[in-house]
Amino acid sequence: xxxxxxxxxxxxxxxxxxxxxxxxxxxxxxxxxxxxxxxxxxxxxxxxxxxxxxxxxxxxxxxxxxxxxxxxxxxxxxxxxxxxxxxxxxxxxxxxxxxxxxxxxxxxxxxxxxxxxxxxxxxxxxxxxxxxxxxxxxxxxxxxxxxxxxxxxxxxxxxxxxxxxxxxxxxxxxxxxxxxxxxxxxxxxxxxxxxxxxxxxxxxxxxxxxxxxxxxxxxxxxxxxxxxxxxxxxxxxxxxxxxxxxxxxxxxxxxxxxxxxxxxxxxxxxxxxxxxxxxxxxxxxxxxxxxxxxxxxxxxxxxxxxxxxxxxxxxxxxxxxxxxxxxxxxxxxxxxxxxxxxxxxxxxxxxxxxxxxxxxxxxxxxxxxxxxxxxx
Length: 376
Ligand code: SF4
Ligand code: SF4
Known about the structure:
single chain, alpha/beta, TIM Barrel, 2 domains, nine-stranded mixed sheet, 16 helices, 11% strand, disordered C terminus, binds iron/sulfur cluster
């Protein structure tokens, strides 16, 4: 992960204490979609094909806060639709930060520059900018010219104003792994705080259906694109175990309750990607009344067969990292070798200190003496 150290420690504290309490099913990241309306119509999007009366619906800030408090996840990703269209998005974001949630505000960035003044930089706030590759590829996938340039300009302005900014990239059929390796280099040179990447999910409602990768294609694509990722110093905002999974080096099934979605209909069943089971009115009801055996690779559900998205499988990778001390150290070591040495050392030392403290977050996470000595 590449979020601020303060935010990382609050997430680690939550994960450790939840694990120590023996809770079996718990949320890691809550997805919040306060509206479906968007100012783009991307080829692979399965979120915006609703009638106008649904596209006009908005969750109020109070509905958002009530759901976030009930769910209890330490991280909230605000998506849509385009969240910046929501008239109260600034109130929603500030309310989540006030509740000490790590907040990812997803945006296609078209409206970001003129809305930046509505937000304040915070260690708990990260702009997650939709960027599906280099200029030609991105503009093709969002079906509109000029969007890439608008996104890059907004990223640079947000960085200059002190915000944390990450990119969020979906990979589709036929994309060139070599082009994406250059794209990752370019993002890092631009100074983004992290990159998120996932194969697309074959939404039934997506306008184009021939663009989604099958599982073997996903393995092959990511093996090629991510080879020597540690040496390259790319900072992906994922558990290293999830990246291994994408490359076919780990075999996981999904954890759909780990990344639940609240939208204008309620809590979507079973997961962020599909609404086959309808909607629950609370997260508790979602957990207790969903027949989870119907979903995931092992279920044989054809809608799950090729799914390898981070929404379903990152929570599994995170749970795996916390399944034992050996696994945890493996994850910390992997994390530390991918990151720049100073930031990695500060983070991994703080994490280990947190473990040794029985899950307590150190009052001040300081870089270790090794950082200043520059030891790799
Ligand atoms: S920007 Fe996001 S929500 Fe809007 S159409 Fe594209 S993928 Fe869908
Ligand atoms: S595999 Fe899991 S995350 Fe993916 S669509 Fe099925 S239930 Fe959802």
